[in-house]
Design a protein that fits this description.
By secondary structure, the chain is mainly α. It has helices spanning about 1-10, 15-20, 55-135; strands spanning about 10-15, 30, 35-40. The protein folds into 2 domains: about 1-40, no CATH class; about 50-135. β2 and β3 form a beta hairpin.
Length: about 160
Amino acid sequence: MRDMARRAHHGVACPPSTRARAAPTSSGAEIGDGRTEYPRSECPQMNVEPVDLVALVSSIMGISIVLFPVIGLTIRFALKPTVEAMSRFFDHKGLGENVQIMERRMALMEQQIQSIESSVAQLVEVTDFHNQLRSGTGGQPESGPADPEEAGEPAG
């Protein structure tokens, strides 16, 4: 703590890399960790070069021209098995639903076919009955009354 107060009062401790460039004067004192303490006016200053924005942007664009396709191909080949597995999973999931829908449709079609068959059977019976009435051969049932008026049915 006392050392920090002394540095703040007397000067700035320059790193060892800058010490080689700046020749220590009689006012520089060794701190002990490889650095030399200089007065503020004698400490070498770091030169900051201006950034060439055009060169920086052109370098980034040049690297991007090569880097983007490489990244795209890498991602494509890396994700292809995952995407295929997911598509197969969702296809099989939809397959179960499709089977259930098809089973319902088949059950409805079977009911319709049965109703059509019963309607056709009734039409065949009615047609046979009408043919028997026209021909006059045995149109009377054996178990029922001989006259339709006796059965309570109006004659048509």
